[in-house]
Amino acid sequence: MSETPSDIWSREEPESPCIQICVIHPETRLCTGCARSIDEITKWSKMSNPERRAVMAELPSRNAAPTGRRGGRAARLKR
I need a surface site. Which of 2, 9, 71, 76 has the fewest CB within 10 A? Predict the structure, then answer.
């Protein structure tokens, strides 16, 4: 039986959710591109498949960048 190149390079692990828009939102501390935390991004390559799947399942419920206005100067002064 002959293996094709796609068979050789296929993996049983979840793909990374990264969409190459890597900006960490200052308030949520999540990436605005993939909604992962800095810790999750850093540990991704060392996570087990079940850990990766758990993160992937959680991502749709995260709000990486709030859509409302932040309040301008007055809000900054309150921080």
Answer: 2
Burial class (CB in 10 A: 0-12, 13-18, 19+), 9: exposed
Per-residue pLDDT of the chain (79 residues; tens, 9 = 90+): 566 666 666 666 678 899 998 999 988 999 999 999 999 999 999 999 999 999 999 999 998 887 776 667 877 787 6
Tokens of 77: 């002064």
* 15 vs 7: CA distance, rounded Å: 16
- Could you tell me which of 47, 74, 70, 69 has the C-alpha nearest to residue 58? 47
